[in-house]
Amino acid sequence: MYLIYFAIIVLIPLWAQMRVKSTFAKYSQVPSATYRSGAEVARGILNANGLFDVSVEEGQGFLSDHYDPRSKTVRLSPQNYHGQSIAAAAVAAHECGHAIQDSEGYAFLRFRSALVPVANFGSNVSWILIMIGIFAHFSGLLLIGILFMAAAVLFQIVTLPVEFNASSRAMDQVVSLGLIANREEREARKVLNAAALTYVAAAAVAVLELLRLVLIFTGMNRSNED
Fold it and tell me: Were 16 and a residue from 5, 108, 148, 197 both cysteine, which residue would form a disulfide, CB within 3.0 to 4.6 Å?
């Protein structure tokens, strides 16, 4: 039973990663009808929304694209910064969606940002407490570890509406501003949906693991009572 469980929590993220990489690889080879680079798409969206203080920079690494709220910077991986593909336009627009969220004070983004230090601490400390609690048969320590882990899981769950909302904003922007052709909307959406799967997979695995630990805690308490 445990082998099946661990196979599932390994295979779900692996499948999601393979899906996003294959989808990106496919549509990074399809030129956008407007022949705008990802950097140009990003700049166009930011300017249209009055975000002139947000810069667009070339980052490093494969699919390392992100928005940094501290420096107000959209960083695009080299392939997306220079690329004129549908994939590059979709990814650039998605990161600009986060910049727009930041400028509007989007509630879930603010909540996620507030959770960052707690989630980081929880993910670093939780497993130490959990493993000690399990091997020492100390349910109190296991419970503390579970609570710390729950904070990290909450971060994963809150990330979902943030990412889906950014993708929704991205599609609205690229279509309304004419940054991609209307007929390319379906392909751009496929890229964003594939990327969203990685967040869904991560959240699902985190919730499953938390539930497993809660069951272990419950069973430990019952054995202590006996």
Answer: 197
